[in-house]
Records
---
Amino acid sequence: MELYNKDTFSEDILPVVIVGNGPSGICLSYLLSGYTPYFSPDSFHPNPILHNKLMENPHLSLFDQDLEYLCEGVEGRSSNPVAVLFDALLLPDGDFGVDCASPLIWRHEPERATPHVVLGKGPPGGAWHAMEGSMLTLSLANWMELPGLKLKDWMRDKRRNLRNDRATPTEIASYYQHYVTKMGLEKSFACGTTVTSVSRVSLDSGCTVWKIQGLQRRANEEIEIPFSVYAENVVLATGTHDIPARLGVEGENLPFVCHSFWELEAAISSGRLDRASDPVLVVGAGLTAADAVLAAHHLNTPVYHAFRRPVNDPALIFNQLPKLLYPEYHKVHQMMSQQQHKEGETVVNLANQPLSSPADGTSYPGYLSFPKHHVAAFRPDGKCVLEDEEGLQTVVQVSMALVLIGAHPNLSFLPEHGRPLALESEEPISCRRNPVDVDPYTYECVKEPGMYAMGPLVGENFVRFLKGGALAIVCDIARKQSKKGQENSTISSLNIQLNNCSLEA
């Protein structure tokens, strides 16, 4: 879709503009395009309470039901109730690795479609295209799929095989791009767009709408053309991977200090990093940090691993993942637990340690973790100063340091980079520590009516749970549109009555 030179008000102000064309924006576009979920009367949900609730109104679509009522008593691995509900309906017993059929049936009802535009910098799929080329596999394939198109079926058609029910980032990116085409969503996607401003403007009628400004790159050209579109509602679906978080310590800008997993892959691919290199320091205890540990360990490059939390902290992501479904991350968690640096001990020089595994298989040579430590400084000679909670410092020599402590979204198009929307308005928005403050059943921003947020912005890092945000937003926007239609009908009826009245002398 081309938006060039659209810089004046049109008669048609869009009901919805979505900023971000990753899986969040794609899923929302699918639901806004008239694809409607119903509970199949022939199906049975393993949760008897939820099953009985759905059977109370089997003729109603999920869009027409009370989400808050349906959410009661449904539990899952997300703090957002609608995300847990929709996940339970799309992937019953998904936490147990069971590939149960969804009890939902999907009907395309064009009369329900809501006009919208999805804005994104690259092709549909968002940040997944930047991950192409990763040698690591990701979550279970059915956790990555979107409604209406089974990822396994798509891969089978492509004559590709899933390895241990996993898919690579390249395959996931291709799947999302194909999904948009297959579902007929392309007409709503404006790719090559960079949003520069989202602000409220007043109309002559006295009401306000959102004005979304930006630049769009012409196909196969470098030139960018300004555009403006107007909407009643705007949805933030940008993800949070744009700006890597930084430690803010001395020496962080030194050449050997990196803030991206892909820089590690580049070093491996170019041969700059191999088994003869000095150890790599990985800072962080999330899944990306775990991927870096696995990649270096696979290469037989020694690894120092520093993180602030204790290994048994319930908030640590490894303590929240099913062990059977994530064996590789469970392995990293074992390494973190079994190969800890002990206070007062001399640090083992991993560069001189044999990398062959012992016969009992309980130890991981070439790896040493530093729980409850933070980086105090990086030095030009490749030394890193680690400090524990008591202030005791340890110095390690490394060839490369990877600071993988999360990322912040690029919300530069919003006042104060969107901070006023967060739970803690004085801090930057982040997925884990400071998400956007939204109503749990509508995903509308508490501090900005008419603006919604979904996906990582509200704490959903897994694709399987971000789909719940799309359901909540579509239901709320449909409710608003219905209320608006009723009000317009009432006004029209009143005008007709007044026009038919005559004053008597």
Note: The chain is about 25% helix and 20% strand.
---
Amino acid sequence: MKTMKSKLPQDRDFFDAAEGIRKVQATYKISSTDMANGLLDGVQYNSTLASLDCLAMCEHLVKEWRLQVAEEWILSGIETTNRVVSQTELQLLRGSIEPELHRCLGKARMKQKKYEGALEAYKIVLKHSPHDSNIFTEYLNLESRVLSGLEPIEYKEEEDVESDYLPTCCSGRCEVPQKLRNLYCVYNHVTAPFLRLSPIKMEILSIDPFVVILHDMISPKDSALIRSSSKKHLLPSATVDVGAPKGQKKVAEFRTSKSVWYDYDHNEATRNMNKRLGDATGLDIRFAEFFQVINYGLGGFFNTHMDTLLSDKARFNGGYDRIATAVFYLSDVPQGGGTYFPKLNITVFPKAGSTLFWYNLDTKGNDHLSTRHTGCPVLVGSKWVVSKWILDIGQEFTRPCIDSISKAKYLASAEKLII
């Protein structure tokens, strides 16, 4: 057991799983009962959560002070115990967890100042476990507080601090603005000589900011090579801690994914992707960051953010910034996992072989705030992408600053295709 312990799921793995479920639920507005019954954003699956799973969610949410959702989960767990379901050997060995369900319900209600409901829950617990001294002590403390009118020792209001980071349109069912409804698809044959023989299919989603889908950008063979060669190298996605010693990184809290970085010359697939991206965009890909291979599993997400590194004031002092972003999709995702632009109300769902491309900076080199985007949680499947950030320094002749997007026809980059 000691030799196996390090290979088994750890506390961090459970935390990621529970937070993934919570973020999926909050983003797609799924009730705890629907999620426990396998009804995910309108699609019914032949899979359910047991009452033990609901108990684990409740205990996690109580610790995180998400008390209302915790209560909903425990009520779903109690409902689950009342229906006939097949139990695993572990569940049968563990025995009835109904007392623990009501105990967690009591704790969640107590912290919400729902004293009467909390007492009712604890009375049920005592019926199942009349000789448990800890439970009896908790009940007496609660009863004395109710009778004396005292506040709970710990109490704080729940704050919805994530409303800006968990958008409501990840399902893709939100109405697209009128100005984005009459856009079009074109064959790009002008940004590289080779494209005269084999043009690239480009689907224009927005003109300002310039957001497009490039189709057939990576072959199934190259996609498979990237996925297979990177699996053993993937590590939890990290960020640089500004306050820490130079180069020290920490696991990112605002995203749930694993990733690895590769040079453009890492293998045949990365070389093909690099050449293809340069042809499709007309930009000089020599001035770009490494490829980042990213895998988002179930519940994998990336909070709403911008890809730029500098403020507008600091950008023109000689430092480099990310002028554009390209996201290669290596796999289809059965449900969820879209890239959502809140300011544009556009949701792009992964399609194997295609690439989502947009400019982070406007025509004058400033932040384009409309490019704020969210990596929506994955509901079903696994999302494999490769991100590539192209730098502004080095693009002076391919994408120089212009007064407005109406002068894009004079550029050497892909915007010249705007009609």
Note: The first helix runs from residue 2 to 5.
---
Amino acid sequence: MGKRNSQRKSAAMFDSDDDSSVTSSSTARSDLMSVSGGEDVQFVQDSLLDQALDALDEKRGSTREKALSSIIDAFNTNMQYQFVEKKFATLLHQCLASIKKGSKKASAKEIALASHAIGCLALTVGCGDNAREIFEESIRPLDESLTSRIDVSKAPSLLECLAIITFVGGNDQEETERSMDIMWRVINPKLGSNVVAVKPSAPLIATVVSAWSFLLSTVSNLKLNSKNWQSSISYLSSLLDKEDRSVRIAAGEALALIFEIGVIDKFSAVSDSASDATQKESKPLESYIFLQGLKGKVINQCKDLSVEAGGKGSAKKDLNSQKNLFRDIFEFFEYGYSPEISMKIGGDSLQASSWSKMIQLNFIKHFLGGGFVKHMQENEFLHDVFGFSPKRKFLNNNENRMSGGEKRMFKSPNSVLNKARTQLLNKQRLLSEGRNFGHYAVGMVDEE
């Protein structure tokens, strides 16, 4: 009975068709979570997350969507270590219920939100047993969803989730390669004789290539399957000729990474050893020659793209980004210069000086969106990934950086925080005075 009452309260909170009320509720939650310190703030924050988690059981899809949005907002605004420690398994399985094939009907929006929530959960728990459980529990549902004939609009969020959980929770290269194969099949499926191939959209291709590159950046010992590498590089080279700029940029970064991790150099070493053994017509030597020819083609393509004139309807900003990227790629191929990136995080500078780190940084920044700065400041897993050590004086110092309006919002008697604090104190006073003791005693049991 207590559980049902809790769910009804949660549904009431998230079940509204009034967009303005949703916006104000989301804003209030975000504002609450940005305030520094105080057990009452933590109480309200945990309460909101618990209510959102309960609302994921509701039958109405819009209610589940709003609850998932609230959870993602909470993960973006604060590091939810305390909530994750207690409820991570429940949140994981509720999100998987929205993704799994044959479960309650879920909209593309719900699947996108559930996938994103799982990715946020993985980044928050960091390496360890919990990240491992997230990976093991999620890999099959994600694989089944991506390999089934799903709505194309659902695929990008599923791909990004797969990339993040593998990045955090995958234990070895074999698991990483399995996830990369799943991604590749989305745009190059193994079709039966009676199945008609569906041409993938440009945004889907760009997402697959970006997620695939993100995982490739973590691979240290390459398997020298010449046929696969020739096929991959040839395909990526063909994408450099596509009209869509996002596809060209994703393909260019992937090719730069492939050559940075030494694919051709490894084939060169194998071909040299084969020549020493007087196997002049060996396949490794043929592969090396073929890949060298491909590299020459890619270099010429990158050179052309670095000086491309703007086409019809071309955004100047996007064009400049492409030209700068391919200028960097061309210089890397020709002279071995790696890209140098410096990004300000609070008062600190985050540096990246390789294609692999640049790709990882851009992917995680894109995935976290508005939560990127908060995570980079306080997420120890990301500190380890990027070798980033923020100055502690910039952490837990939100109050000093509040604007006048924010201080009035949180410190005034009518603020959301003070109202929540007042409700909590009133309840505690009633309990201590023994009023309606039976009712509140039941309420306490229900909440526990």
Note: Residues 283-305 form the longest helix (23 residues).
